[in-house]
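agent> call fold_tool(seq_1)
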Amino acid sequence: MIDHAHDLVSVRDATERLLIAAAKLDNASVTQSSRLPGWTRGHVLAHLSRNAEALVNVLEGRPMYASAHARDADIERDAPRPLAAHLADLRDSAARFQAAGAEPADWSRTVELRNGVTDSASRVPFRRWVEVELHHVDLGIGYELEDLPAEFTRREIDFLTARFRGHPDVPALLIEEDDGRRSATGRSEGAAITVTGRQADLLGWLAGRRDGSRLSVNDGALPALPPL
């Protein structure tokens, strides 16, 4: 069972770690490239702020974004801002998300996200946690996949293997983690390809943050995964 209250606390803690780390940057470093192709660190910070507001919309029954174009335009508008503006925006938007999450609600209800994707309201805090943790890594400022909380890594691997399960473009896979856990994903037919490695490397590959070169494959080459 998903504990949304627990996840809201985890989001708060992850956001505080991000804010402390980002506060050590300067205006010049905000304009430098992040690890995401085509995005500066300012783009990443702007996206995190706008995503917090978008998830408030989801929790309050409004469309997540007015449109895909509006989402992208808002990020481009905000990306060049000085560091102080980014930090204030991120802190304020995070507070609004926490306030929306604290409101009495039916957490078992179904909510709509982007592109027609639906989910339980109870999973929205975890989705925000994913945004904060992975984009902290994407900033390229010393926070790595190995630094992620163990609970987060375990749950995000579960989430991503479930996301690819049954995907027509992903061959049958058996994911073996270094702690002995196994998860099946991809197509249900055909002999499964076993992919083995450390949790951080598996998460990096599943989330499109690493190329999988540190992983072991029992038969042939590591398959390419479709973008998230």
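agent> call fold_tool(seq_2)
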Amino acid sequence: MLTAGHPAPPSTAPVRVFLLDDHEVVRRGVRDLLEAEPGIVVVGEAANAREALARVPAARPDVAVLDVRLGGATGGDHEGVEVCRELRAELPDLACLMLTSFDDDEALFDAIMAGAAGYVLKQIGGSDLVAAVRTVATGRSLLDPRMTDRVMARIRGSVPDPGPKAVAPGELDRLSPRELEILDLIGLGLTNRQIADRLFLAEKTVKNRVSSILGKLGVGRRVQAALIAERLREPQGTRP
């Protein structure tokens, strides 16, 4: 019998789901929950970013449920978001549902910039998580409009943003013309792979250039560079 309120059309193929979480207990719990539902099948799982990036393309899921934070202090604050960014570059039709224990505006911002279709807390009820998977599988978004508006307001610079520091003109002078070009594309939300394709560069070259840009701007996160790029497009912003 179908779960009330979340019917799956009998004529459609099952929703294929891939799980990424560094806690085995969490993965097992989510797998058991989803596989108990009609019309949903878990086609693979991974415990870290490297495994996910290697396994997802072969598994061809419709939805990837990705833990935002992986590996504690060694895995980076929002490594799951970077996985989302890379997977979306390779598989544009993949819906990424971000799963996190923290109500974190910065992580939400990162997720939107990476192209995530949804963002839910791990405290979510089981039936709501199932509904979330079904929702993003249909191509719909599961991002609270109020939260999305707040994040987009940050991008436009209409609210104070304590994250990225103000960049002095001298720091922008340190960027080469190619680095300024890459910074602009980062601000548009492009992944390293997409930037490489756009500029006819090797992906590794773009990755190295992005690291150089972050260092020269004195910021530690790609999303901070994206905010800087957005502000440079505003009338009050200036290009060297």
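agent> summarizing second result for user.
Residues 95 and 239 are 36 Å apart (CA to CA). The first strand starts at residue 15 and ends at 20.
agent> awaiting next instruction.
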